Give the backbone structure.
Amino acid sequence: MQNTENIKRTDVRSYQMAAQVLFLTLGIYFLDFDINCFNVFIVALSTSLTQYICCLLFKQRFEAKNAVITGLSLSLVLRSNDLIIFILAGVVAIASKFIVRFNNRHIFNPAIFGLISVLLFSNSAWISPGQWGTLSWVLALLIIIGLFVAVKSNRLDVALAFISTYIVLTGARGFWLNEPLNLIFYQFENGAAFLFTFFTISDPKTTPQTSSRRIVFGIIAGVWAIILRYYFYNPYYIVYSLALTSGMVLLVRIILSFEYPKIFNKMSKAL
């Protein structure tokens, strides 16, 4: 049974890597992404070497695919004119898996952790949400392949919960403000949002293990995305929404880890 699960997980990671390479290729050669193949290689190398070193230090089995996926994820969204920024993001991303942990699980998506780290502490890093443009075929390809990967990883529920919440609240806000329909629909033409939905928030390692909890997780992330975008005007609202949601999950887990009177036992188990 365990071998079957390992095979499925390996297959899912292979699909995700293939999809990421495809989108990077399209981005570099057709969409004029502000990144080159050398930078992509350096990021993947930094994540792989960091994973190898951390596995040695923490006496764990080395798996290159997880590190490469993190490197490709960073390459898809992170932009900088300084190569050291890419290296630092990769190192911090992988190191966070081994250091920022609770109950033998890492809390934050590694790519998101590395990305936010360089965004907060460097003026030389940024994200370009508009790099995907508004080409319908690109968005369609993102959605189709993203759905396939989410289904294979058994995380379609959290992906749909997030994007549905994001779309419904964005539409409701637009109607409340009497915005024209074309403006409302234009706000949905965001390749970065769909990339995040199907390739980041659906990470099996950092999302809840049950479907009901994953749906709640996705809804909360969607609400955070709306709040950060329209009320705090944060241009990186998608990235921070996942980090804030993961932080909330960590806080709940810490609270529930304490010993409480018996009257709270059932409530604790339900959560």
Q: What stands out?
A: The longest strand covers residues 78-80. Residues 160 and 218 are 8 Å apart (CA to CA).
